[in-house]
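Before the break, one more example. Copy the sequence into your notebook; we will annotate it together after we see the structure.
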Amino acid sequence: MIFQIRKNKENKHSETFPNFVLINTLSLLEHVVYNSLLELTFIDYVYPLFGEYDLIVKINTNCHQQTDQLIQNEIKKIDGIVDTKTLSCSK
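Here is what the structure looks like once it is written out:
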C-alpha cells in the first residue's frame, strides 16, 4: 500500500494553534480512511503510522471548541475510523 503525505497549503495559520489527531482504523481500511481524510480541507498533514495508531493528522484551529467540532462532526464520521485521540497544543 502506498501513501502520499499531503500538506494543505491553502490554510493561513495566523492566530491558530496546532492539534494532532491519532486515529485507529478498522483492519485493512487504513488507505480508505486516509483518502477520505485528504478530502477534508481543514487538515494540514496526514501521515500513516506504525504501532498503536494507524494515522495521524494535523489541524490548526482558533479554539478548543472548533477542534472538538471538526473532530466530532467531520473526522469521526468517516467510515472505518474506530477511535481517535487528540493532542492539542496551547497558544
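The chain has a mean pLDDT of 88. The longest strand covers residues 17-25. Try to locate both features in your own notes.
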